[in-house]
């Protein structure tokens, strides 16, 4: 599995930044499908829960530095992606925050990709000096405009710098039916010319609010156009739009602040022209081959317009109503403009693809192993979410798939039992159940970052099995325990179909009868809880006889579910110290626990001397 951390101005509900993130994630998922390779994406966001919900990925609060450092430490590639992160127009703090992330990534030996960014402005010579010395650590740099490209070359960086374009040029719009429904909701007459206006808060207010209101009134009264105000950053833009509308004589249309980027892109298909202060409103217009004029509040607006052979129709500190109106009429009536926009946009799309070609090469260059060998036992390089997904995929299999959960005890037992080692390696999935296995992994070719306990994996599957209507059979533990476990499970998962239970204290002579009982219940999933070794041996021996889709060895999980055994408190679980809790609550397990120091000794011996 390849781990990727994406950093940017995410979680602030800014349509432009979210469009960049959407394209990044979609392209990474496409790479994952094409290469048949697992990718774990973590996004640094100011609203991690919202980001996780929207994009179905992991997210970390970018304000919590320790969590950010931890995420970067685990990644293979750090992507500083999208927008204009390296500038101090807003504040030095923002510039140094994003530079700090690159420094941390390189400190941990990670590949760093400055991805299609706009660079600058960076004020003060000492800020430029710090920027230069940090940015040269990057392994890959692509920028989205000529001015950024020139700035980096003036700094005489030795890095290869590629001119790309904003990833939002690769965003796909939502379907036309969805957009038509939206326009019906807002009662917009598409038989008339429709002008979209995108504004944002600006520093030098002066009388610009009144001037924009006057322009909108003229377009409605004198020209008979529809005027639609479009928020690109939620409530912040709505506040400014409402200020403008309050100064107007006529009533324009105001779109909701809750649209996703692909929805807004689809909406832009129906506009005749966009008047935009936000960069991505101009990019969206260009992407849909619509005419646009820009109001500049930042050099990035000027840089973008320059690529289309245009100049700003106005600036926030020098805004002339007549000049803006003349630009609007020129753009609407000049026939050659449309062809120029289409040609330049096609070129921009090709340039935007370049960054993703480089990213694909970077990902391909990372050699990740699908599994590692820990003292002769195969451990799959997989995290909890991927293990769960794989188990769910197994439900579609035509023959039984087996999941084992090797821990230190099992691995050490396999050192003196070759047959048991062979059985462990015969499974379809071996998850690292135990912090000792995770610790040892870094010495065996691939660092694992989390343990996947059999109990937690089993419980996480219950919700999915309940929704799918899959049948579950519980096998193992002492007589009566499986029944109690079933009772407790049904209290938590009321619609879960547990088609049968049977204890694990049956004789060899009863084995075929037990298999027949299981098969007659027609389970999709069989959880086997007979304890270490015996359950794996039983599964291995009977796998071909069983007619279920997924078989998982879950150790003492039924004892925990029934209440017979109390699991370690959450604190011990998070710290990976369940073994220690069991030792202090069950001191008679002391002899069994001696395998832990032996395991550590053998692993370190191999690390130091290269042999056993």
Would you kindly provide a written description of the structure presented here, covering whatever features stand out?
Residues 14-299 form the Polysaccharide pyruvyl transferase domain. Belongs to the glycosyltransferase 26 family. TagA/TarA subfamily. Catalyzes the conversion of GlcNAc-PP-undecaprenol into ManNAc-GlcNAc-PP-undecaprenol, the first committed lipid intermediate in the de novo synthesis of teichoic acid. It is an enzyme of class 2 (transferase). With 612 residues, this protein is of the alpha/beta class. It is built from 27 helices and 21 strands. The strands form 4 sheets. The protein has a 7-stranded parallel β-sheet, with helices on both faces. A 6-stranded parallel β-sheet has the order 10-9-8-11-12-13, with helices on both faces. A 6-stranded parallel β-sheet has the order 17-16-21-20-18-19, sandwiched between helices. Helix 15 (384-394) crosses helix 19 (454-468). The two termini are 28 Å apart.
Total count of strands: 21
Rounded to an integer in angstroms, the radius of gyration calculated over CA atoms is 30 Å
Mean pLDDT comes to 89
Spans of 5+ residues with little confidence (pLDDT < 50)?
none
* Main beta sheet strand tally, sense and closure: 7 strands, parallel
Instruction: Give the strand content.
Output: 15-25%
Helical/strand content category:
alpha/beta
Strand order of the largest sheet: 3-2-1-4-5-6-7
* Broad shape: elongated
Helix content: 40-55%
Distance between the termini: 28 Å
The helix tally amounts to 27
